[in-house]
Design brief:
Blueprint lengths: L1 E5 L11 E8 L5 E9 L11 E8 L13 E5 L4 E7 L1 H5 L7 E8 L5 E9 L6 E7 L2 E9 L9 E8 L9 E13 L5 H4 L10 E4 L1
Antiparallel strand pairs: 1-12, 2-11, 3-8, 3-12, 4-5, 4-11, 5-6, 6-7, 8-9, 9-10, 12-13
């Protein structure tokens, strides 16, 4: 599937521009593996970024005016390397802390080819959550035994696409391709090799081929 946005597109509700694919909401306090392949063309304007290519987002409750920072954000940085942004503990504890993130830095993006991405996650409002993020079967970040979700009624869901997340407006077109988006049960023994191969168990759900 292709995702694209243009500087001439209308802005979204948050004031930015995006082209995305949304997946179903995930249950809290449950371990999941999510994996997909991404193709980023060499024409991608990373030098004027950073621009986001995936996120796990918690939907604000009805009537809550605060739009919290996403639970997980994957960016392509201005140096063409992968970045992962995670909210700090303060962000999860305080719904008004909307901009506090820890940043983790990964390998250089492989342009013009399919690359495997994976998340191993347990979104929890208790100190039992965890988040691991992989790009090209290399771990970018690993956070365990802490809060990984907000105390909202609605839980997190995954979105893949291209985002002018910081409203930079420094691009003409953002474009990326995705395939093989799969959700797996994180308790089925897949942990040992998911980051390397992601083929030790049958998919729990194929979100798109």
């Amino acid at each position: 599937l292709v995702t694209q946005c243009s500087i001439t597109d209308a802005v979204d509700a948050s004031g930015g521009r995006r082209g995305e694919i949304a997946a179903p909401e995930l249950a809290r306090d449950t371990a999941y593996w999510l994996s997909w392949d991404v193709w980023v063309p060499s024409s991608f304007p990373y030098a004027s970024g950073p621009f986001c290519i995936a996120q796990m987002h918690d939907t604000p409750d009805v009537g809550n005016p605060i739009v919290n920072v996403s639970n997980v954000l994957m960016f392509i940085g201005t140096d063409a390397k992968i970045q992962v942004w995670l909210p700090t503990a303060a962000s999860f504890n305080d719904k008004t802390a909307t901009t506090l993130v820890d940043k983790y830095y990964g390998p250089t993006v492989k342009f013009d080819q399919w690359v495997k991405c994976s998340l191993f996650v347990n979104f929890s409002t208790a100190a039992t959550g965890f988040i691991e993020v992989y790009y090209d079967r290399q771990i970018v970040c690993k956070v365990w035994r802490q809060k990984t979700d907000y105390a909202n009624t609605l839980g997190p869901y995954c979105r893949l696409g291209v985002y002018d997340f910081s409203h930079l407006e420094t691009f003409t077109t953002l474009l990326a391709y995705f395939k093989g988006f799969t959700l797996r049960d994180g308790t089925d023994g897949a942990y040992a090799s998911m980051g390397a191969d992601a083929k030790t168990s049958a998919p729990k759900q194929l979100l798109f081929a």
